[in-house]
Amino acid sequence: MNILIVEDDRSLNKGIALTLSQNDVVIHQAYDLAAAEHIVEVYPIDLIILDINLPDGSGLDYCEQLRKTSRVPIIFLTANDMESDIITGFGLGGDDYITKPFSLMVLRARVMAVLRRTDSQSTGKISLGPLELNFEKMEYSKHKQPLQLSKTEQKLLRLLVTNMGNILTREQLIDKIWSKDAEFVDENALTVAIKRLRAKLEDDPASPKYIKTVYGLGYMWAEGQKS
Fold first, then answer.
1. pLDDT value at position 182?
2. CB 160 within 8 A of CB 221
């Protein structure tokens, strides 16, 4: 398990890291948003402890940015205990909120509670009508028949499904799928990946019910309920 601590107070950051350290947990530490963004790109982060007031920006803004493509659990840390800040944090997709000063053991208990809640909501396997998608084992099928998906198609599918009902722009998809190479990727690469994925998933690729094109904006997964 990978936990990211984004806190510019180095002493507090270190204290949180020591409190959460155990054999099955890898702690990543960032002291600003730039470092946090890099870590999230490189590692499969399972939970973020995110300070709101950081040297290079707002944790609230970063949470809003993350929620466009990720459901990673986020616990806010802040010296602000105003009701409006708490409401804003939850409204942007935060999972919990703790104000400074706080007990490190209380924080640890809150972290464990959020992780348990997240685990109970995620079986690792998603059923969408005839589609069975297991992103952890990288196993996919339609009508019980195995689907062979490339790594790019798997990344694209996961982004679309985990953001079901939300529009993802072409820029967001290209940036997340090709990461650091995004600026050098031919824009046509996304169109090709969408076409290939539709050919494997849709009954009628020319009239897709899963991957919808939102003209002028991007794409959206529009069909089915996760179970």
1. 52
2. yes
Query: Where in the chain does DSSP place strands (E)?
Result: 2-6, 26-30, 47-51, 53-54, 57-58, 74-78, 96-99, 125-128, 131-134, 139-142, 145-146, 168-169, 211-214, 218-221
Share of the chain above pLDDT 70, in %: 92
Residues above pLDDT 90, as percent of the chain? 52
Q: Which of 8-12, 94-98, 167-171, 182-186 has the lowest mean pLDDT?
A: 182-186
Whole-number Å distance between alpha carbons of 135 and 219: 20
Whether residue 170 is predicted with pLDDT greater than 70 in this model: the reply is yes
Asked whether 163 and 146 are in contact (CB, 8 A), the reply is: no
Helices 170-178 and 188-201, packing angle to 10 deg: 90
Tell me the pLDDT band of 225, cut-offs 50, 70 and 90: very low
User: Tell me, what CATH number does 166's domain have?
Assistant: 1.10.10.10
pLDDT at 180: 58
Instruction: List the Cα angle 136/137/139 in 5-degree steps.
Output: 115
Report how far residue 158's alpha carbon sits from residue 147's, in angstroms, rounded to the nearest whole number. 14
Residues 50 and 71 in one domain: yes
**Which of the listed residues 66, 96, 121 is the one where a domain comes to its end?**
121
Q: Is 90 inside any structural domain?
A: yes
Q: How does DSSP classify residue 203?
A: S
**Overall residue count recorded for the chain in this entry:** 227
C-alpha 27/C-alpha 38 separation (Å) is: 15
Residue 108 lies in a domain: yes
Q: In the predicted model, is pLDDT for residue 25 greater than 70?
A: yes
